[in-house]
Structures are given as structure tokens and as C-alpha cells.
Design goal:
Layout (H helix, E strand, L loop, with lengths): L3 H9 L4 H11 L4 H5 L1 H6 L8 H19 L5 H4 L2 H17 L5 H4 L5 H9 L4 H9 L5 H4 L2 H6 L8 H16 L5 H4 L2 H29 L5 H12 L3 H13 L3 H6 L5 H17 L6 E7 L6 H14 L2 E6 L2 H14 L10 E3 L9 H11 L9 E6 L2 H17 L6 E5 L13 H10 L5 E6 L3 H14 L3 E6 L5 E2 L5 E4 L5 E2 L11 E3 L2 E3 L4 H11 L6 E5 L10 H14 L5 E6 L2 E5 L33 E3 L4 H12 L5 E5 L18 E4 L7 H8 L4 E2 L1 H6 L6 E3 L2 H22 L4 H6 L41 H10 L3 H14 L7 H11 L6 H13 L3 E3 L13 E3 L3 H5 L19 H12 L4 H12 E3 L5 E3 L17 H5 L5 H5 L3 H6 L5 H10 L15 H14 L4 H7 L1 H4 L6 H11 L2
Parallel strand pairs: 1-6, 1-7, 2-4, 2-5, 3-4, 5-6, 9-20, 13-17, 13-18, 14-17, 18-20
Antiparallel strand pairs: 8-19, 9-10, 11-12, 14-15, 15-16, 21-22, 23-24
Helix pairs in contact: 5-10, 7-9, 13-15, 15-17, 16-19, 17-19, 17-20, 20-21, 23-24, 29-31, 34-35, 35-36, 39-43, 44-45, 45-47
């Protein structure tokens, strides 16, 4: 029961009979003493319930208890009524705003002092505070969740103006951490906060309107005033950038998949570019270079660009390498469009290989995607690197600009290093791409894992016309496994195993009676290492360049499968080439295949033509190898190893992985005609965001068998790219960072000194950066490997010493120079063939290099020079094989050097040399017959000036005392200048018939380069193939006609 005084108070404050019964019976509040104890009960953890009615009861009872505590002598039954109660409530509300002793903290349990102060400052009503308590908004921490909860519809009973005031206060407090709420917050302070917020809100509204109506529009006079307004109001441009960034990245799906890409920095630069285009009539195209690791998730970068195009309402064109790859990229971009302004139906792939659209249907779809502002939120066209598909993009832009004169668009060049192939842009695709670039896209984004080739070309252009470049280095996440994480094969003795350049040939090796092309015991050791693991094995074999000729990838796959079938080890062989993706199940394995139920909406359902009950070679129709690997895993599990054989298709653009299996082993054997970007892209197939899957399958790393030079170059080129990004971040220009203009690049980024390969498809790219690195060279495992290779090779040791002696007089030399120098100065005869073979190995190991702009020697023979310096070369010399030159030996005196220099440069003496050489070439015997002189001029295999007696021929007509001052070795060095006499000598010896050159068989490297060239340029383009692979065909002087005859022989 409730006593009369409490019952009367409850009646006057608006509590019904039902509520009074609840108070007395459920909460044991029977009299005024119980009422005064209510506050302490609640503070000690007591509860009155959780419904809205109980909150109301609690609030009123606490206020009544505070009144009674302040006026204990008042006769309740006589002096307390509704008017007293209303006055008391008014007094409490006023006190709340002023922070007095009767503030809400004194009579509302559950809302802390700071929150009560905030409610008073923003003018929250009693009913509003009750609802806030119900929603748990009782502290500043809870206040910061109001905006998100309101946007999710969780605060429906709070008034809109209250939510807005709470949100404004929360935002201001976040920006002013440490503010004393209890001491300084009042209604005046909040008024200032609100006024500032309203001003910011105006900027926010203007920024959104500016983004939606101006940024993506072509230049016009109407937008110019908005452009000037943005520039004139402090902070307004930053607001535009902030809002544009937020609109672009509003999709949770895109934010999750973008990983570590610094999209804020990228969008800041990009949106400022579009802002400049609003107010500048004659703007220059800007190029963005995005460098990212192989398979590190760079598709998300294209997703960000796609979303930005949707926000601005302008089309985007993405060019990538390969038709199948363009289809795959289109699917990725479609997935990334979730939650962005770009509609899925406006993401179009130019190829009709997948959707089987007619020519007209495809063009109409592109036109709808490129409709422009007001009709679509941007649009995306994905094209492959063919002239026909680039022309589709050109037509799409033409239609777009018919409706939107001067309309802006974005061009993204994916795998950009593969798009610029010739210096004069002679390929029809290159010409079509240049035509597309000439349409003046607002921004061009070049994306590649191997950007150095086109960066060199851009830098060369920047040097002349100041093209504006933005460089962004895409950092992978912690799950990424890069080239620096792969490990070479380890033999039984714990020694690292590497291939030698061109060690693998089509002849291959015979194991257990089965010939496997492009294989040897090292390769078999790699196979055995892979098959020694229990699950998740995926081996990539990029060793055979052949698809149709003998010893091709299909024959190798079948042979490897047969070899291990003999050992009762089943493995699935997959081949990938321009002919498509093919699968061969080993005999017996098909019996355990599971029948896979594909869902109707599966992207593989329509292309399922694959039988799990056949060991014949079968084609996977959709050519997406990731789908195939997933199906094989589902059918046979992870315990069955997969070997994938390919070559060109393994170089870029394709990810070889399933959901549960990633690359574990790789064989990479690239010929001399490949450039460094090709090597990095190929090895990059073994990298990716796969560390977790690799670990789950029991692998510590990816095991690779390749040359040590290629592996080192892959690691150091990435260091070089990282160093460029670091230096640009410190303030260097693009060109300064690339060339080491402000500070030389460290040796750990000097990839150039470890390879004979060109940097990219276009030759001569080294010139711009050849002096960008420090001169101090660090000795590492690669140098140890090279020294061990030649340490006991007597011919190699003698060749090194000859090169050092020749270098002291003339920096260029050819095989004849070495042969004659060895014979005359070291009395060590070597055949020209042996010298050529060793020079080729030295070239592979970067001990020597071919000269770039110097052609000399007999018949224009290729010349060489020391790759680093002679001191460096001496470190590879074995002292047990001969004397190793020291510093003093390598420095000739000024007098000797000047005399030898004069001998080489003085053209007046060479007429006498030629005469002397002619006289010495043949001498009469005592019986009148003729015999060859030991100092003959003509060799058996070619016509050249040979080891002419220097005392009688070279210095014929010169002062004998001058010749006497030159040491015999220096006289031998002067032979390198013999080619100056050659022209004179050959003119005098024109009547002597040249002997026919001995036929040189075609090497495996030449055959592979030819077949690869036909695949790239087409049959009949013999001159282009010959020029593109000049390094391979120059050695034996092959002509385009030779290539045609060879191809006819190979394809019989």
C-alpha cells in the first residue's frame, strides 16, 4: 500500500492509478522515505525497468524526490499541487541550462554531467532527454554514434532538429579534443558552433553541386564564375576534394578491396586536375603513373577510377593486354561497381567473345554507356590491345562528343609497358592508340607492375616538353608475397640451384626412357620437390616457347605426366597458349572425379564442356584458368598436384590460382631475346596476395628455378621503383628521381648491371639511367656464383686477362682482337668459336656488354666492352691460373698512353700499314713457290687484318726510337686499332676472293625467337621480327630471308 502523501504527489505529477500500483508493488516505494532513497538505490545498481513508461516514472519520481529533499518541512497534502510541480520543473530546466546544483545530473540517473550540460546548451526538452536515455545517449562517447545510428534509422523517435544539434555538437567536439564541457559549454557557445556549422553546410552544398555540375563538364563561361568562387573562398577547394573523395569511396565493397592503395592522395591530385579544367580553356593532358607489384590487386585502382568517372558523369576507357584478359578485367570491374554511381549495364567489354553480341548491338551498348551527364553516371569500356578494339573506343568517344562537345573522359592504360612496342610506332595497334591519345583525354593513367620502360620514354619526353607527371607507388598488403620472398631450388647439399642462360634446349633429357624437352636433372629436381608435398601443389612451367613445332608445351606436358605415371604419381597437366586452355587427366585419375553440380547463375555454367571421366586432351572453353583450377579442386581435392605449362600466356595479365590453391613452384627459362619487363612479369605469376593460402597448404615460400641474374633483376628493379617513389615524396621531380640527379641511386636498386637484357620492348632505354647509380658495387651471392663458375675454367681466365690488357688501350674489342692478343702477348691460342661462346657467357653474366653506338671490326662485327670496370673484372680471376693485374699494372704511363693513342688516331700511317700488310701476307720461298707468312693477314674463315709484325708494319716509316719506347704488351694492345687499316687494306686487296662463310646451324634461341615473333607480329613480317630480336639474330648475321626459310622448315 502507498501512504497518502506519496499517493497525493503521484497524482499531482501525472502518474495514473495503474502506475502508482506498479510503484508500490513492483518497486516497493510506499512512502516519502522510500522516495528519498530511490536515488541511492539506482546508484547502487538497482533497476526500475527498461520500458518507456518506467523511464517516465523514474524521471518524475527523481524530480519529486529532489523537491522533497529541498523542501522537507512543507506539508505535502496542503501545499503541494500541480502549479508547484510545474514551477519546480521550470526551475530544474533552467538550472540544467546554467549547470546549477539542480541540473539533470542531480535528478536523472544514467546521464552523466557532460551529457546533461550538452542537453542544456542545445535546449533539449524534458521529453527529448527521456528519449535520449532510452536510446542510451547518456555520455559523450554515446553522442559520437548518433549520426551513424540516425542514418541507419535507429533513432526514429528523436526529433530531427535534436539529432542535427547532437550531430553538430559531436562533430565539433571531435575537432576540439580536450574542450572543457562542464566549464565552458553554454547556449552562447553552441550558437557560435551552430553558426559556423551552417556556413560549412553551405560550402558542403556548393561543393556537391560543383562536383555534380562542373567538374566533369567541358570548359564554358557559365562554369567559370563557379571556378573563381571556389578559388576565392578559403578552404572551399579542399571541401570539394573532400566531398569528391567521399562520393568516390562511399562503397564499402570498394573501400575493402582497395587495400593499401593511397586513394586519398590519388583522388586529391585527380580532382584538382578536373578543377583546373573547369577554369582553364587550354589545359594540358596529365599523365598518372601507378606502379604496383605483380598481382597485388591493382584492379582496385581501376575500380577507384571507374567510381570517380561515375561521380563526375564522364566515360572511362581501360586498355589492357589480351582479349581474354579484357573479359576477365570487365568481370572484376563489374564486381567493384557495387555501391558506386556506375551501373553494371554501363560497364562494357569491347570483345564479343563472351556475350556473342553483334557489331551493331555492341556499338549501341557502348553509345548508351557513353551517353554523358544526365543520362548515365559515367560508363566504362574495356578494350584489348588490338586495332579493331581501339577503334571501337574511338567511335564511342566520337558519339559521346557529338552530344557533349569537348566532353571529358579518362583513359587508363593497363599493362602499359606492353603497349609501346616500337620506337617509330610502326605497328597498327600503336598507331590506333596514338590516335586515341590524340583525342585529349583529361587524364591518362598508366598502370603496370613493370613501369620502367614507359617511364623512361615519358621521362625522355618530359626532358624536352615538360609533360606533367604524377607518380604513385601502390603498396601491397601484409598478405602479399613478392619476388623478394621467392626462393631458389635447394639441392641435397643445401646449395642453391640456378639455371644458366639457355641451358635448357628442345633436345631436353631422357628420364626412364621418356624424353622431356626443355628439361635436365635440375628441372626434374624441381618437379620432385613439388611432388614431395602432400597438398596444394601448383607448378608453373614457362620453359618451352613452342606451341606448334616439335618439343612444344603439349608434348612436354604429356611427357612429364607419363614419367610420373610410371612412378604411380598422378598429376593433372594444364596447358595455356594462344590456342586456349587445355587439360589432360592422367590415366586412372578420372575414376575418382566427382560430378560437380554448377549453380545456374555460375559464370562457368554456360561454358561447361569439360569431362571428369576422360584422360584425353580437353579444351576449357572460357579460357579463364582460375575457373578451371577451382573446378579441378572441387572434383579431385587438393591432394592431386597440378602442373601448368605455357610461355607467352604466362607473362602477364593472368592469375594462376584457385580459391584454395596458389603457385608453389615455378620454372622460368627465357631466351636472350626477352627484355627485363618480360622476365619480371613472368616470375610475377608466382606472386600475389596469397601468403595465407600458401601457409595453409604447408609451404614456407614459392620455389623457383631460373637464372640468378633474372631473379636478381626482378628484385632490384622493384627496389628501383620504390626508390623513385621515395625520392618524389621528398620533393624530386619525376625526371630527377629516375635519373638520380640529386643523389645517385644505391646499388641495391641497380638492376641494370645484372642483365644483358633490354629494359623494355624498345631498345636503348638504358641510356637515360645508365649513370643514375653509385659507382661503388656491392659484392653478393650473384657475384659468388659467377666467380665459382669461371674459377677453374682456364679459357675463361685467359680471356679475362686478355680483355683487361685490351681495355687499357681501347675500350672496344671484338673476338678477333682477343684471338690475336692472346696469340701474340700470352702465347695462348684459342679458336674464334671458343672465344665467341665464352663472350656470350660473359655477356649473360654481365662481365662484358655489347657496345651501343659503336660498330667496328671486320665486316661490321659486333664489339664488346667491359661491363663495369677492369678492377671489377679482376675480382673474378683465379691467381692459380695466371698473374692477376694490380692497380699499377692497370695504369699505363702518360707517355705510353699518348703514344698508343697517337698510333690509333694518326690516319696518315695506315696507308703504310696496308702496304706492309700486303707485302707480308705472302712471301716467296727459295724455290720460287709461295707460302703463307706466320704474320699472315688473312685468316682461314674471314678476311681481316691479323697479327702484323708491329715493328715492321704498324710502325713502318716511323722513328725507330719511338717504337722502342712502347712495351710489347702495349704494342699488342695497339692491335685493337687495326680496323682503321682494314678499309685501306681491303681496298688494295679487292682482287682477292673472299672465302665463302661456313654455314652456321640455327640455335634453339633463334628458333624460339622466330616462333615468338610470328606469334606477336604475324607470319610474313620477317623484317620486323628480325629487327625486334636483333640481339639474337645479329650474332650469326641472319637476314629476313633466312628467317622466312627457317620458318618454312619448322612448320613443314
Amino acid at each position: 500500500m502507498m501512504d497518502p502523501e506519496l499517493k497525493y504527489i503521484c497524482s499531482e505529477i501525472g502518474l495514473t492509478k495503474k502506475k502508482r500500483c506498479l510503484i508500490a508493488e513492483e518497486y516497493s516505494i510506499h512512502n516519502l522515505d522510500d522516495l528519498l532513497q530511490l536515488k541511492s538505490r539506482l546508484e547502487n545498481g538497482g533497476e526500475l525497468g527498461s520500458t518507456m513508461m518506467v523511464e517516465e516514472i523514474k524521471h518524475k519520481l527523481l524530480m519529486a524526490a529532489e523537491w522533497r529533499r529541498k523542501y522537507p518541512e512543507v506539508d505535502v497534502l496542503e501545499d503541494f499541487d500541480e502549479d508547484v510541480w510545474n514551477d519546480w520543473k521550470k526551475s530544474c530546466n533552467e538550472d540544467v541550462r546554467n549547470g546549477g546544483e539542480n541540473s539533470c545530473n542531480n535528478y536523472i540517473i544514467g546521464m552523466d554531467a557532460e551529457m546533461n550540460k550538452i542537453c542544456g546548451a542545445i535546449g533539449t526538452t524534458e521529453d527529448g532527454r527521456l528519449k535520449m536515455i532510452r536510446y542510451g545517449i547518456t555520455s559523450v562517447d554515446a553522442l559520437h554514434s548518433v549520426e551513424e545510428r540516425a542514418s541507419n534509422g535507429q533513432l526514429e523517435e528523436l526529433r530531427t532538429d535534436l539529432v542535427e544539434n547532437l550531430t553538430i555538437t559531436s562533430t565539433w567536439l571531435r575537432d576540439n579534443l580536450g574542450f572543457d564541457i562542464l566549464g565552458n559549454l553554454d547556449d552562447k557557445q553552441f550558437h557560435e558552433i551552430r553558426t559556423k556549422h551552417d556556413e560549412t553546410a553551405k560550402h558542403y552544398t556548393f561543393a556537391n553541386d560543383y562536383i555534380n555540375t562542373c567538374l566533369g563538364s567541358p570548359y564554358n563561361e557559365d562554369n567559370l564564375k563557379h571556378y573563381n568562387h571556389v578559388n576565392s573562398v578559403p578552404g572551399l577547394l579542399d571541401k570539394v576534394i573532400e566531398q569528391g573523395n567521399a562520393a568516390t569511396m562511399k562503397s564499402p565493397n570498394l573501400r575493402e578491396k582497395v587495400g593499401n592503395f593511397d586513394h586519398q592522395h590519388f583522388l586529391d591530385k585527380a580532382l584538382r586536375l578536373f578543377h583546373d579544367g573547369v577554369g582553364l580553356k587550354d589545359r594540358n593532358e596529365k599523365t598518372f603513373v601507378v606502379a604496383g607489384r605483380t598481382q597485388s590487386g591493382k584492379s582496385a585502382v581501376k575500380g577507384v577510377i571507374q567510381s570517380m568517372g561515375g561521380v563526375l558523369g564522364i566515360p572511362t576507357i581501360v586498355l589492357t593486354k589480351g582479349v581474354d584478359e579484357s573479359i576477365d578485367l570487365n568481370e572484376k570491374l563489374t564486381d567493384l561497381s557495387d555501391g558506386t554511381p556506375v551501373k553494371k549495364e554501363h560497364i562494357v567489354v569491347a570483345s564479343n567473345k563472351k556475350d556473342r553480341m553483334s557489331y551493331r548491338e555492341k556499338n549501341a551498348k557502348v553509345e548508351r554507356a557513353f551517353a554523358g551527364k544526365g543520362e548515365t553516371h559515367g560508363g566504362m569500356l574495356v578494350i584489348a590491345d588490338t586495332k579493331a578494339q581501339v577503334q571501337k573506343a574511338l567511335r564511342g568517344i566520337e558519339h559521346y562528343r557529338e552530344k557533349n562537345p569537348g566532353g571529358k573522359f579518362i583513359l587508363v592504360v593497363d599493362e602499359a609497358d606492353a603497349m609501346f612496342r616500337t620506337e617509330d610506332r610502326s605497328q597498327v595497334f600503336e598507331q590506333a592508340l596514338e590516335e586515341l591519345r590524340a583525342t585529349n583525354p583529361t587524364m591518362t593513367v598508366m598502370i603496370s607492375a613493370t613501369p620502367v620502360p614507359f617511364m623512361l620514354e615519358i621521362a625522355a619526353k618530359e626532358e624536352t616538353n615538360g609533360e606533367d607527371i604524377e607518380f604513385i607507388n601502390f603498396s601491397p598488403n601484409s598478405n602479399y608475397l613478392g619476388v623478394e620472398d621467392v626462393e631458389p631450388l635447394i639441392d641435397r647439399d643445401g646449395k642453391k640451384v640456378y639455371l644458366q642462360q639457355n641451358e635448357l634446349t628442345s633436345v631436353g633429357h631422357v628420364f626412364d626412357g621418356i624424353r622431356i624437352p626443355y628439361a635436365n636433372p635440375k628441372v626434374k629436381a624441381l618437379y620432385d620437390d613439388a611432388l614431395g608435398h602432400e597438398k596444394g601443389v601448383l607448378l608453373l612451367d614457362a620453359s618451352s616457347p613452342r606451341v606448334y613445332a616439335d618439343s612444344n608445351i603439349y608434348q612436354k606436358a604429356e611427357a612429364v605426366q607419363a614419367l610420373y605415371h610410371k612412378k604411380e604419381i598422378p598429376l593433372i597437366a594444364v596447358t595455356i597458349s594462344g590456342r586456349g586452355v587445355h587439360v589432360r587427366l592422367p590415366p586412372g585419375l578420372e575414376a575418382i572425379g566427382k560430378i560437380i553440380d554448377l549453380p545456374e547463375d555460375s559464370k562457368m555454367a554456360d561454358d561447361w564442356e569439360f569431362s571428369l571421366t576422360s584422360s584425353k586432351l580437353q579444351k576449357w572453353r572460357n579460357n579463364l584458368i582460375g575457373d578451371l583450377l577451382n573446378c579441378l579442386d572441387a572434383a579431385f581435392g587438393l591432394s592431386v598436384p597440378l602442373f601448368v605449362f605455357g610461355y607467352t600466356k604466362m607473362r602477364r595479365g593472368i592469375s594462376f590460382r584457385s580459391d584454395k590453391r596458389v603457385v608453389t613452384h615455378m620454372l622460368m627459362n627465357l631466351g636472350r631475346g626477352h627484355h627485363t619487363s618480360s622476365a619480371i612479369q613472368t616470375l610475377g605469376r608466382a606472386t600475389g596476395n596469397c601468403r595465407d593460402v600458401l601457409d595453409s597448404n604447408g609451404f614456407d615460400c614459392v620455389t623457383v628455378l631460373t637464372t640468378i641474374n633474372d631473379l636478381t633483376v626482378c628484385i632490384k628493379m622493384q627496389n628501383y621503383i620504390n626508390e623513385i617513389g621515395r625520392r618524389i615524396g621528398k620533393g624530386d621531380t619525376f625526371l630527377q628521381a629516375m635519373t638520380g640527379a640529386t643523389e645517385k641511386m644505391p646499388d641495391d636498386s641497380n638492376f641494370v648491371r645484372h642483365t644483358f637484357r633490354e629494359i623494355g620492348p624498345i631498345k636503348g632505354g638504358r641510356k637515360l639511367i645508365q649513370n643514375a647509380f653509385v659507382e661503388e658495387i656491392a659484392w653478393g651471392s650473384l657475384e659468388d656464383n659467377t666467380r665459382e663458375k669461371y674459377w677453374e675454367d682456364t679459357n675463361a681466365q685467359q680471356l679475362m686477362r686478355s680483355i683487361v690488357r685490351l681495355d687499357s688501350a681501347h675500350k672496344y674489342f671484338d673476338p678477333d682482337d682477343i684471338r690475336h692478343e692472346l696469340r701474340e702477348c700470352a702465347n695462348y691460342p684459342m679458336t674464334k668459336k671458343s672465344i665467341l661462346q665464352l663472350l656470350r657467357k660473359f655477356l649473360d653474366d654481365c662481365l662484358v656488354k655489347k657496345t651501343q653506338n659503336h660498330v667496328g671490326g671486320a665486316g661490321g662485327a659486333t664489339e664488346f666492352q667491359v661491363a663495369q670496370n677492369v678492377n671489377w673484372l679482376c675480382k673474378f680471376m683465379n691467381p692459380n691460373k695466371g698473374e692477376v693485374p694490380n692497380e699499377e699494372d692497370l695504369q699505363c704511363s702518360f707517355e705510353e698512353e699518348s703514344i698508343v693513342s697517337n698510333v690509333e688516331s694518326d690516319d696518315s700511317c695506315w696507308e703504310e700499314v696496308a702496304n706492309s700488310a700486303t707485302n707480308l701476307s705472302v712471301s716467296n720461298t727459295s724455290d720460287g713457290s709461295k707460302e703463307e707468312s706466320p704474320n699472315r693477314v688473312f685468316d682461314s674463315d674471314e678476311q681481316s687484318v691479323s697479327s702484323i709484325s708491329l715493328s715492321t708494319a704498324v710502325y713502318s716509316g716511323r722513328n725507330s726510337s719511338t717504337a722502342a719506347t712502347i712495351s710489347p704488351e702495349k704494342l699488342g694492345n695497339a692491335l685493337t686499332a687495326k680496323r682503321k687499316a682494314l678499309a685501306v687494306f681491303q681496298s688494295k686487296s679487292s682482287e682477292k676472293r673472299k672465302k665463302r662463310k661456313k654455314r652456321v646451324p640455327y640455335s634453339e634461341e633463334e628458333k624460339g625467337a622466330l616462333l615468338q615473333g610470328v606469334e606477336e607480329f604475324g607470319e610474313g613480317k620477317w623484317k620486323k621480327i628480325r629487327n625486334h630480336y636483333a640481339d639474337t639474330f645479329d650474332l650469326n648475321m641472319r637476314t629476313p630471308v633466312n628467317l622466312k626459310d627457317l620458318y618454312r622448315t619448322l612448320t613443314k
